[in-house]
């Protein structure tokens, strides 16, 4: 009972517990390396040697934004959701409660422009994420609080007074 999680998690076959597409960076890298070895020695390989690795890097950067690491913990008085969102500001994060669920959304924008005498570099990266959690019945939805510090979002979901009462021990008698 101590390890029981009261946040409902529905999981479809072959789908991660918190939604979204499964991200397997090493599998994607292995497939890319396999493709490079298959193409090695062909005329096409020498024309565009590592063009797709740039795409792999972009995909990796997007995945890092689109699926933040999240921990869900429970204490006697509240549940706490902690999401790691490095490089983001609180203005880029939105936390909503509606229809017995909590949604955390965010968008990260990165723009860089560098002009020198003999070159010009302009980069733009955008990534967004959205995570949804079902709320247990023993949460006081109107008292949910969120704070953001040093790239870590903490959402506290306080339990109702009834849920905070200690468990009553029942004496077991011999029959």
The proportion of strand residues reads 25-35%
Q: Tell me which CATH architecture of the largest domain applies here.
A: Sandwich
Helix content: 10-25%
Shape: elongated
Number of strands: 7
Biggest sheet, in brief? 4 strands, antiparallel
Number of domain units: 2
Within the largest sheet, what's the order of strands?
Answer: 1-2-7-6
Radius of gyration: 23 Å
Distance between the terminal alpha carbons, to the nearest Å?
26 Å
Structure class: alpha+beta
- Report the top-level CATH class of the largest domain: Mainly Beta
Q: Quote the CATH topology of the largest domain.
A: Immunoglobulin-like
- SSE string, helices as H and strands as E: HHHEEEEEEEH
Low-confidence stretches: 10-20
Mean pLDDT: 77
* Tally of helical segments: 4
Pfam family, one: HSP20
Organism: Bradyrhizobium diazoefficiens (strain JCM 10833 / BCRC 13528 / IAM 13628 / NBRC 14792 / USDA 110)
Region (Disordered): 1-20
Family: Belongs to the small heat shock protein (HSP20) family.
């Amino acid at each position: 009972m101590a390890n029981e999680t009261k946040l409902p998690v529905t999981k479809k076959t072959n789908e991660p517990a918190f939604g979204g597409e499964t991200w397997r960076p090493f599998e994607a890298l292995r497939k890319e390396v396999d493709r490079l070895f298959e193409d090695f020695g062909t005329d096409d390989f020498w024309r565009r040697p590592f063009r797709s690795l740039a795409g792999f890097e972009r995909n990796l950067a997007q995945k890092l934004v689109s699926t933040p690491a999240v921990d869900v913990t429970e204490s006697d008085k509240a549940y706490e959701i902690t999401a790691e969102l490095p490089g983001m500001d609180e203005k880029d994060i939105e936390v909503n409660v509606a229809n017995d669920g909590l949604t955390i959304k965010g968008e990260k924008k990165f723009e860089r422009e560098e002009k020198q005498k003999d070159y010009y570099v302009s980069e733009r990266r955008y990534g967004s994420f959205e995570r949804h959690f079902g709320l247990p019945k023993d949460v006081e939805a109107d008292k949910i609080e969120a704070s953001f510090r040093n790239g870590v979002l903490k959402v506290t979901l306080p339990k109702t007074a009834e849920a905070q009462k200690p468990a009553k021990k029942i004496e077991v008698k011999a029959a």
